[in-house]
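Example record for the data management plan.
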Amino acid sequence: MTSPLFRTKNVEQSILDTEEPEHALKKSLSALDLTVFGVGVIIGTGIFVLTGTVAKNNAGPAVALAFLVAGVVCALAAICYAEFASTVPVAGSAYTFSYASLGELPAWIIGWDLVLEFALGTAVVAVGWSGYIHSLLDNAGWRLPAALGTRDGAEGIGFDILAAALVLVLTCILVLGMKLSARVTSIVVAIKVTVVLVVIVAGAFFITADNYDPFVPQAQPVPAGDNLAAPLIQLMFGWAPANFGVMGVFTAASVVFFAFIGFDIVATAAEETRNPQRDMPRGILGSLFICTVLYVAVSLVVTGMQKYTRLSVDAPLADAFKATGHPWFAGFISFGAAVGLTVVCMILLLGQTRVFFAMSRDGLLPRFFSRVHPRFKTPHRPTILLGVVIAVLAGFTPLNELAALVNIGTLFAFVIVATSVIILRRTRPDLHRAFRAPLVPFLPILSIAASLWLMLNLPAETWLRFAVWMALGFVVYFLYGRHHSRLSRGAGVRPGEPLEPSGPGSP
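Corresponding structural encoding:
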């Protein structure tokens, strides 16, 4: 007997479902499109904002090492994502992968987690974009009424109309088609990368070697309760995490990890890729490598331009140029940040809608949302619904304190995907894998351990909020998803073919 909670959807059927006319997405993306999507969403708030925060509070000039550590953790997960996305080229990313290996309930959990991750990520970035636009408008002598938003986002009873308008415009672009989205992304990414390269090249002329001394500042204890890992590590090893010092680099890595969120979204577009077996690994790994190099270079330049203790928390790149007497560069960087965050918002919304679409096609959410537009072949119903909800969320809600939920959600997805690679290698060794992760199971296990380590370095309140969201997800699944799942009715299984084993270790 097998538990229905861990019934799996076989890979072949997942691929067959993508060929149903009413539920099939248009295949139009190339490896270059995927790489541009990845670079477009990864280079955003992290590189323009987080550099100053973690340098000043956690790592000093060693923030460059923090970006490198976070990049390595992402690379381990990216290899696992690349194997799955090329083997199971179906919308849904980690949700689809876990459905094929771990079972329905774990798939629901990760899908529910991704819904939170992408929704909050989109809203947070939209509010940040609005802040940059308000700043640019102020510099030009224009100011919107206070009730329509403030520089820090929507506060009090005000409505951040710019943040909401951005989400709605991007929703329309996504409804009109992926190729249009890719073209818009290519233009914006070109502008954004140009700004980053200008920062690196121009800033290199203003570096002062003394600003790197000390490169790794002396360690300071983390305040009690600020870090979930502190009591656990102290109990096990006799020492605790710290701000600054070597452990400060790891603490910083758990924060700057937000800057890398996005390469996993490339996997959500697998179903809309012309040659996913070849192009998905190139898009995922290529975009991650490019962004890691740029992040390390920018952090080295910024901490070399200005002493880490004096770096701005809100706009470190722009203010570093102001401090060296070059305000023109500051305005240029603010413009680039505003333009760059536009595409970050769009791709986060793209990932959100594809996960929602995949879950509805499987019956775990209402099937109404799984029908594609007859002309544009896009999942227009979930795109419109989620676009409106996120626009309201971005307009009314100050989301800064919830941004860490995006980090924990992504790391949780990394753990699930790495686990799924190990399990599917064991249960389905016969599957053709165009890209194979090396050193399985050791590399996925290392990915799991690294992701869990960064999760432990997140604040305790982040874990509490995450637990509340997951508990709500269990309620929704047992009240609706479990009973409406296509597998619960035998739908989606080929005639004469039994359901696959219920989960890891099942006979």
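Summary line stored alongside the record: The longest strand covers residues 220-221.
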